[in-house]
Amino acid sequence: MLPIIHTRQLSDTVFEMGVLAPDIARRVQPGQFLMLRLDEGGERIPLTFSDWSAEEGWIRTIYMRVGKTTHRLSHLVPGDEIADVVGPLGVPTRLDGFGRVAVVGGGVGVAAAYPVARGMTEAGCEVHVIVGARNAGLVVLEQELRALSLASLAIVTDDGSAGEKGLVTAPLKRMAETGSIDHVFAVGPAAMMKSCTLTAEGFGMPITVSLNPIMVDGTGMCGACRVSVGGETRFGCVDGPDFDGHAVDWEEFMSRQRIYLDEEREADAEFARSCSCHT
Amino acid sequence: MSHLDESDRGASGQHAPGRRTPAERERHRPVRGARTPMPERDPAERIGGFAEVALGYSEAEAVSEARRCLQCANPTCQNGCPVGIDIRGFIREVIDGDFAEGIAIIKARNALPAVCGRVCPQEEQCESACVLARRGEQIAIGRLERFLGDWDLARDAGSRCMPEMIAPGTGGRCAIVGSGPAGLACAGELARLGHEVTVFESLHAAGGVLVYGIPEFRLPKSIVSAEIALLERMGVTVVTNHVVGRLSTIEELIAEQGFEAVFVGSGAGLPVFMGVSGENLAGVYSANEFLTRVNLMRAYEFPRTDTPIKRGCRVVVVGGGNVAMDAARTAVRLGAEQVVLMYRRTEREMPARREEVAHALEEGVRFEMLAAPTRVIGHDGRVIGVKAIRMELGEADFSDRRSPVPVSGSEFNAECDTVIIAVGSRANPLVASAAAGIAISPRGYVVSDEDGATSLSGVWAGGDIVTGAATVILAMGAGKRAAAAMDRALRAGTGHV
Question: ipTM, 2 decimals?
């Protein structure tokens, strides 16, 4: 059991949570993820580390309330406990040697983009960050990003309620056109990562994507997270989550993410009947 | 507890034949006859749920089975046991109705009898070496082991049989990576030898394949947790949610956390896929994923529990081992209308236990032998069928089984909405990150000697991570052998003799 020490609602559907986990906090590196299980009978879900402090022994994650588990998670307050948290999992993101790099975060993917951007600046890269969200209310970690020594920070929203109106690919394309970046790192919704990949492709530019497939154990045992990369089956949990975006079979990846949509709806409906906040 | 009165027992309670009473002599005269059948839940009833299929012997059944034992002067059965249980000895106690002594004899060699009595391939081990096997009437050693294991677990926790502690605390500190059969056997043995043992498990529950792989209907989870609880009473500490290779490394366990000996029993890890097109369609599972969702995550109770699973209507399971049988029988229980088990050889070559094959057939699993999928057919990202090809058996291969050869022009389609692939596993790459510099075979397994010693000083390994996918008891045997070697090294190194 690990105690929650911090919770913060970042928007209608986006939440931040801090957990006391000194062992994990000592080990986390940018790009890695954790898996948590709320209680007996709970599912194991992967969440990204958005921040951590080895000195103070805490880890943080940011998640969107989309299903039963994240909904129940959003009801927890400091002092509550989580049955199981395991991590850090996944291969850490490569941070150095990229020169000038665009770090693109979409939606709650910004939670993963933030430590990567921080790590890359510390590793001596020139880092341009592009944050994408549906609207201003869903832009997260803006203050934290502004506190980093970034070469630039662009905010893009679907409805123009913050920053530029449009998609993250617009500023990405401009950066590529003006020759101001050598590499792209993208994390967020699959469609966004695919668009970034297509944009990068147009400029013959390398792109690393951080995939978020469905997982069960997160340690390589089940293969639920498999993705086709360059025609080979790779596991998101132990080979990833970072892969060469140009080699990812995006259609397959997106199709696999949708496998349990019906079941998720069923679980949500069942949960809604029992959850006080739904009435 | 015994079904026999005390008065029926020899006054001394000893077993010297010369001092036996007439009643004892009569009791120990072997009874000829067939094996006592195992009571089983009716197939029609059991496919409706996950309750255990084999119900276990009653005391009377156990005693009558034990009384068939010849109590050979040279008990060959014991040579067939990977952990060297005194089989003749524990059967003798069952004959006498002294179940407490019987379980103590088993526990001297095997910390997990209720588990092994259920999942060991006894027909290839102890039972095949029984002299009565020639007549097809070999003693049901596994069922008797299970009987004693269950009899012990049915006692209240305080009076359960603790394996005999051989040595007082020596102060040796041992770390075990993985809480599956190899790790648990190693941990139990080291604790008995007086060492302080910590087991690191990556999942939220201890037991490894015993909890995520083997289904409830074959091995109830309550049995596994009771056996692990007993190890904890012996002083073993189990730490869950700790991935060695990510949260820590073996080097750190030794250098920073003060462990003097480490055993790696992390299992065979990654599931193998077939390498045919369509394998990543929605509806295609590795057996590991399918079984983990159902066993560890209890997806069969969804939506009461949170982990979903696709309940296939027409299911094709590919493979012929125990894992394939487990997957097929699980699919039946999830309500599939049709479950087809596709195997590229024939039933004769199947590596699965006969008992599991028989259970699968009884439960309505249809066998499609001499066939192998060539692709998985999909529509809209979901599985709608499998294209397969007929095989015939050719020359014997390195495993002495005849190799399947495709028959050209024999392709056929099998309609299905779920495909479960149970064709084996390979090494998990996390091992390499757990122990920098450890010698690894070309196939990714850890290289070790007979005692489990690896190329790294202070590090032993055993079970599937060394051998590739094998059985629970072989992993336990490896764990025990490594424990003995670790004990010797600790004593030599620390001077605790």
Answer: 0.93
